[in-house]
Amino acid sequence: MLVAKSTVTFHRSKAFKATNEEGILSMTTRDLLGSLLSGSILAGLLLWSGGIWTNSQAQPAAKPSNAIPDFSSNGRTWVLSSGTAFLKVPGDTGPGPIMDKNFPGSAFDQQRGGARAQNRIADTTNPILKPWAKKLMDIANARVAAGGIPFVDDSRCWLGGVPSILLFPGEAVVFLQTPKEVWILSKRDAEVRRIYLDVPHSKDPGYSWTGESVGHYENGDTLVVDTIGLDDQGPLDRYRTPHTRQLHVIERYHLNNGGKGIEITFTADDPGAFTMPWKGKVDFKAGTPPRSDHWEEDICADNGDGYGFDPDELVPAPHADKPEF
Amino acid sequence: MTMDMRALIVGGIALALPATAIPAFAHHSYAEFATDKKLTLQGTVKEFQWTNPHSWMLVIVPTASGQAEQWAIEFSSVSLLASRGWKPKTVVPGDKVAITFHPMRNGSHAGSYMAIKLPNGKEMGDASRLGTAAE
Amino acid sequence: MMPEMSGRERITRLVFRLRARSVAASALMVLAVTPFSTAVLAANTGAWPDISGKYWTSIYSAKIQPVGAGDPPYTAAAMATYKKNMAAVNANTLDDKARKVCTPDGVPRILESPYPFEIVQSPDRGEIHIIYELNHVIRLVAMNKPMPSADELETFPFYSGHSVGRWEGDTLVIETAGFNEKTFLDNSGAPHTDQLRTIERIRKIDGGKELEDIVTIHDPGVFTKDWSARFVYQARPDIRMMDYACGEKHRDLSSVKGVQGH
Distance between alpha carbon A295 and the CA centroid of its chain, in Å? Predict the structure, then answer.
């Protein structure tokens, strides 16, 4: 048999509707391939009869090794759908991310109103924390429990780090894809992450809020992003979990649900802050009206400070003391 | 100006109690609003900030003793407001309004918008609705 | 004279031709049914000219210079405001949120930024993004779409305005309107109103080594007539864009002539 039966999957495109929603070959394409294959069979028979046999006769269109998951086309936007705290990765036998002491295993945002806890108290019994990190977080917890307002990066106009930017809620995230680079744009305060494809890390990337991200595609449905060079300025999540410059994050953006969802799982490895690598995840879904289904300007510094708030109680928003140029 | 992470984690939290109002840009919990209460005040608009993720109206309200106090009322996002017929200049500084809102639990001069009566008599919003804040 | 081919040789040649055709056909089929891959690969070479990439000016001027000589054609009232602003800039008392808390500069002020920017073309989205390193400003250009209605522009005023674009030959034409009034026209404190509309004509020049942006400025609220300014940037594929966090140390600008106070 010259031809192996295979299900060939392709992703959607406006330009050429070869496939249905699930990316399975449509009837027309199957027919075309069928006629191609008959030609191949004929060629194979001729080869056989000529006593010359090669393996390089025409192959059916196998799954292309350069298949690229489509996070970008048709103006699509994405929005966080799993709540503003990292979740445990299903099947992960490790300790998982820092979760809420008062609402173990549930997304913080689902607890609203009434007499429930108003601000996050981290469960610092998680064995990933080194003693110094646990100590800092316990002090922070105590202050929040006593009524203080905890620091959250995007509420004070600070840049999101990695992976904390995954937790920006409610607003559109946009992917731009070219052969060499992927951009992840967050509508919230117009933040940009850049992922350089199919190149190694620099020898000396320095340190910054978003670090240096390199990546590649896998399985035709996943973007893998490897990030180092993360400065240690901001907490890693909304539980004020600290990290050091040794932090190394590997994210896997897995396009699922027929291209309508992204499951983002990550491994965080920081021997300076954590006793072991740990995994967490969030889910994105297609953006919804009125806020996350399109791009608009959303500039944090446009907002005045909290009214009635004592300025001393707030971490200052980023500002320049004198004009830079 | 860089902030040390430790300062953000630990020092970013007030020692003074209680929290007096809501950070303007926070996706804060609505537990801070008394969503089972409402308050209506008459005053003069000082400013209407048409911004994301929350628009804000600053209203100057005279007190019984003749002082003026500023109340800050939080609205929803620009897209949602626009879908309900609001425009950036639906109210302008100097407008006299009656505004109904869920006050903060801790008594500070801020709240979450429910309804408003504009100078031309037009009423917007829903003053009868208790429950979750406008969004 | 060519030796007579054996039957086997004849068949072999036939088969090779058939096979080559089949291989080519199946290669085409592979490409045809991996449209997104093709679209991505062809992102910058398909129907759109390619002006994507990173650019960085080598000269800086706080005051936008009109093409030709002289000053922008201010009305008398606008000139009075401008003089006040200029004095405040010199005294460092101007309330300039773009430099203080890093709100977006607006257009055309962002065009004179001494920091790099990049153009990303996304034909699969019908969009071009211009992403500036300064204050991480993102301008979205909706390609081949009409300008939003006056009502929409009034309801959703942006620092960077709303941009629609189209190609005219090798030139990207961007029309922008719906600006808020929270920005200055340039770094010298020049004023503008929400009537501001700009038209930019952007193309590669000098064999692709440079990018030119000619911007026409229309604002009857402050100007007696339209006028234009011209910006030229060097193509810089050798650099990487960097984070920008307000108040922190940023990249070395010593390669940009005319930048002071850095």
Answer: 18
